[in-house]
Amino acid sequence: MLTNQTRWSLGHGNPLVPSRWHATARYRWSTASGFWAHAHQRWASRPGRRYVHRVGTATDRPLSVTYQGFPEGLTYVLPYLLDRQRAVAGPVTVSDQPPLPWRELRRRAAAADGETDILVTGCSASRANTLLVRRSLLLPFRVRLLLDVEPNLDAMLARVSGDERRQFHKLCSRHDWRLETGGEVSDLDFFYRRIHQPTMSARHGEVARSADWPTALWCLFRNGVLLFVTEGGKRVAGALCRLDDGGATLRMRLLGVLDGDREHYRSGAFKAVYFLTLDWAVHHGVRLLDFSGQDPFPGQGVFQFKRRFHPTVVLPADHYGGRRVLLRILRDTAPVRDLLAATPMFVLDPDGQLAAVRFVDRTHSQRSNIRVMSPGIRDNHTIDLDEFFDL
To answer: What H or E segment, with its residue span, contains residue 68?
Structure first.
């Protein structure tokens, strides 16, 4: 049964729902390359703009992480750092300060006498380069994971580890997982309400990020394919994908499991979305599979899974490609070292190439459970914190 939101979005005269043209323009503004990306980047850095300022303060151990700059950093960059902060220092209190103009943010970024331990600045690449000083790292704001698709499924699956393949085939047989496409708006309504939205709420809570309904309808569903994973005939997971380049590029945009239920993660149904989408891509002439965006932190579970397909890690072609994250370490304390050792990162080396860094010292060894290398990552650096803080 269609919801009122669905009916309104199909043009039943509700002036509050964006039109198809409006949704398409917003989608290009957010995701397109070329002119749209350049215009969006210039708008984001326009003179006179005031930027967000958010501080996370741990209550059990002294550790303060401050983010300043582009507001998107509150959605994409800061949440993972706050999770790492909680893991090493206990509960975190988050507070917002009044937005500040760039001149003031730059003064704070250049000063080393603030009250924060780690200062994270989201800004344009050109601005970030002017702020690089000792004890700082330059990260991409986002990265993308792209997989070249061969017209042979066995050849594609051969890239995945043997253990992973065997486990998938075993689970696929046990749960009777099959792929089903949805071609009706009612199918999209079910996916959006019962699969995607509950999953985003369960995973991200108040910082959940997603496309709104008009974007899902006009920009993805009408220009792509809706795929379901069924278990015994019941839809338990799915992905809404966009087709670009005449069908040669498949972009996985919205994903989820039924009602956001963790059981479908434990059973492997969420992983099945990727395997079965790859199967669909191979058999429908797709040449490039876009696994979508990723924060610059390879320790995230979603990257640890996707890297098993060996996608190439690249800077985004959209407006995020021109943005950077400047991470400046202002204090050498035990909690700061704990956080850094627990947080491998993707960085940009002096040549502008992507690399991975890990932090170690006499009490922190390299975390062997986090894999960082993938095509597109030129090098894997290990930074000794004793030497880093002697700079």
So the answer is: strand 64-69
